[in-house]
Design goal:
With 111 residues, the chain is of the alpha/beta class. It has one domain: 2-Layer Sandwich (Transcription Regulator spoIIAA). It is built from 4 helices and 7 strands, in the order βββαββαβαβα. The strands form 2 sheets. A 5-stranded mixed sheet has the order 1-2-4-6-7. A hairpin with a 2-residue loop joins β1 and β2. The N and C termini lie far apart (26 Å).
Length: 111
């Protein structure tokens, strides 16, 4: 699982650089997020802007990552692509997570 981290003010931004979070990588994803989240920052923002496919195992891994951080830290999501946003909307998980259009600092990084 290819992920990177950065700081955006008080937030820790974890960017998923793979295009899929599915059953094949769900456990690896959860472990990678847990390891990276040991760095300081609250909230933890999961940047999914490069993820184009998320299945139920992937969704479960995102929820498990949220539970690993709670209650001391919040897990928020950013940059959901249309197919990933649809999964969150259909499962009503969009009401559980704070979802940002893009990750903090995304415009600076692109410029």
């Amino acid at each position: 699982m290819d992920i990177t981290t950065s700081q955006a003010g008080p937030a820790l931004v974890i960017t998923v650089n793979d295009s899929r979070i599915d059953a094949a990588v769900a456990i690896e994803f959860k472990e990678a997020v847990r390891t990276e989240a040991e760095a300081a920052g609250n909230p933890v923002i999961l940047d999914l802007s490069k993820v184009t496919f998320l299945d139920s195992s992937g969704l479960g891994a995102v929820v498990a990552a949220m539970k690993l951080l709670a209650p001391e830290r919040r897990l928020e999501l950013a940059g959901l692509t249309a197919p990933v946003a649809k999964v969150f909307r259909l499962t009503r998980m969009d009401s559980v997570f704070t979802i940002h259009q893009q990750a903090p600092g995304a415009l600076k990084a692109a410029g």
